Amino acid sequence: MEPQFHQPSISPYTDRPLPPYRHLPFQNAHPFLDAEGHSFGEELSPPDSFTAENWQYSQDYLYCIDLFNNGFWWEAHERLKHLSIAAGRESKTGQFVQGLIQIAAALLKHFMQEEQGATTLAELGLKNLQKTAGIYLGIEITALVTQVQDCLKSKGGKYPQIQLIK
Question: Could you tell me how many helices (H) and strands (E) the chain has, helices first?
Answer without folding.
Answer: 5, 4
